[in-house]
UniProtKB/TrEMBL annotation:
Keywords, comma-separated and alphabetical: Repeat
One Pfam assignment: PPR
Name recorded for this polypeptide: Pentatricopeptide repeat-containing protein, chloroplastic
Highest taxon above the source species: Eukaryota
Annotated PPR repeat ranges: 63-97, 98-132, 166-200
InterPro entries: PPR_rpt (IPR002885), TPR-like_helical_dom_sf (IPR011990)
Length: 341
C-alpha cells in the first residue's frame, strides 16, 4: 500500500483498505492512514472524508497524521471549509495539532483567497505551536491574492522578526504590492531581499516590473528589465508583457524584437499592449500597423485590441477608421453572443 500511496494511486490504496473491511478483516489505523495519504496526494477529498468516517465506524483510535492527510486532501482540492471542519474535529478529539495541521488549513484558505480565516489560523498557531516558514508564506500569499498588501507587509515583518523568510516570502509580498501599483514598496522589498543575500527569481523581477507599470513608473520598469541579464535571469513572456505595458510605442517595438531574439513567442496580450502604447501616443498609423502585424501572425484580435485602436484613431480624428473598427467590434460581439468562433 505504501507503493500505491507514493505513486498517487489512490484508487488502489482505497480499494485495498475497503477490501479488507468487506472480507471481514479489520483494517488498522496504518492501513487507513496509508489510503488517506494517497487521497491527499491525489486531492481526493471525498474519499478522504469517507475514510475518516470509517475510522469512527470501526472504533479505531485516530492520530494527527491521519487528520493532517485529510486536511491536505481538502486543501489540494480547494475545499477550505471542509479543511477547517476537519481541523476543528482534531480539537474536539484533543489531538495534539502541529504546524503541518495548520499549514494545510492555511493553504486551503489561501487557495480560495480567504485571507481573514488564514490570519485567524496563523494567530491560533502562534498560541498552539510555533509557525514555520510555510505558515507565514501561505498567510502572506492569502493576503496577496486578496489585495491586502499592508497586511502582507506586516506579516513579512513578523516573519523576519522570527529569523524566517525566503524568496517565496518576498515574492508573495512584492506581488501584493504589484496588485495595487505600490511600486515604491515593491522596490523597497526587492532591495531588502538582496540585502539579506537572497537571489531574486524571474517571478520577483516580473512582479516588481508589473508594480512599476501599474504605478506609471516606467523608468524603473526599464531599469529592472535591464537588470535581468546581470542577475542571470531568463526573461519570460510575463516579464516582457509587464515592461511593454508601460513603455512608449517605440520602446515597446524594441522590446518585441528583443523578446523574439530570446526565442519567445509573442501572444495576444503582448500585441494588445503594443496597440495601447500607440493609442497613448495618438499614433493611429502605428496602431493600424500593429493590427496588420497581428493578422500576419494569425493572431485573432479581441475587444481590447479594437478598443485601443479606436482610441488611437479618435485622438487623431480619423473617423473613417473608427467606423470600420466599431463595425468589426460589433461583428465580434455578435459572434460571441451566438457562440461562433
Amino acid at each position: 500500500m505504501a507503493v500505491a500511496a507514493e505513486a498517487k494511486k489512490w484508487r488502489v490504496a482505497v480499494a485495498l483498505a475497503w477490501g479488507l473491511h468487506r472480507r471481514r478483516l479489520q483494517p488498522t489505523v496504518v492501513t487507513l492512514g496509508t489510503a488517506l495519504s494517497a487521497c491527499a496526494k491525489a486531492a481526493r477529498w471525498r474519499q478522504a472524508i469517507q475514510l475518516l468516517a470509517d475510522l469512527e465506524v470501526l472504533s479505531l483510535v485516530p492520530n494527527i497524521i491521519i487528520y493532517n492527510s485529510a486536511i491536505s486532501a481538502c486543501e489540494k482540492a480547494g475545499q477550505w471549509q471542509l479543511a477547517l471542519a476537519v481541523l476543528r474535529q482534531t480539537q474536539r478529539l484533543r489531538l495534539r495539532q502541529d504546524s503541518i495541521t495548520f499549514n494545510a488549513a492555511i493553504s486551503a484558505c489561501e487557495k480560495r483567497r480567504r485571507w481573514q480565516e488564514a490570519l485567524l489560523l496563523l494567530a491560533e498557531l502562534l498560541e498552539e505551536a510555533s509557525p514555520d516558514l510555510t505558515s507565514f508564506n501561505a498567510a502572506i500569499s492569502a493576503c496577496e491574492k486578496s489585495g491586502e498588501w499592508q497586511l502582507a507587509l506586516q506579516l513579512l515583518m513578523t516573519c523576519r522578526g522570527r529569523g524566517l523568510g525566503d524568496v517565496i516570502t518576498y515574492n508573495a509580498a512584492i506581488s501584493a504590492c504589484e496588485k495595487c501599483g505600490c511600486w515604491q514598496q515593491a522596490l523597497a522589498l526587492l532591495a531588502a531581499l538582496e540585502a539579506q543575500g537572497l537571489q531574486g527569481t524571474v517571478v520577483t523581477i516580473s512582479a516588481a516590473i508589473s508594480a512599476c507599470e501599474k504605478g506609471n513608473a516606467w523608468v524603473w520598469a526599464m531599469e529592472l528589465l535591464a537588470r535581468c541579464g546581470p542577475m542571470g535571469l531568463q526573461k519570460n513572456i510575463i516579464t516582457y508583457s509587464a515592461a511593454i505595458s508601460c513603455a512608449t510605442w517605440r520602446r515597446a517595438l524594441l522590446l518585441l524584437a528583443e523578446l523574439e531574439e530570446d526565442r519567445l513567442e509573442s501572444n495576444l496580450v503582448i500585441h494588445n499592449c503594443l496597440v495601447e502604447a500607440c493609442a497613448a501616443a495618438a499614433d493611429w498609423r502605428q496602431a493600424l500597423e500593429r493590427l496588420a502585424d497581428m493578422e500576419r501572425r494569425s493572431l485573432r484580435r479581441d475587444a481590447t485590441t479594437c478598443s485601443a485602436a479606436i482610441a488611437a484613431c479618435e485622438r487623431a480624428f480619423h473617423w473613417a477608421e473608427v467606423r470600420l473598427l466599431l463595425a468589426e467590434l460589433q461583428v465580434s460581439a455578435d459572434r460571441l453572443a451566438f457562440g461562433e468562433t
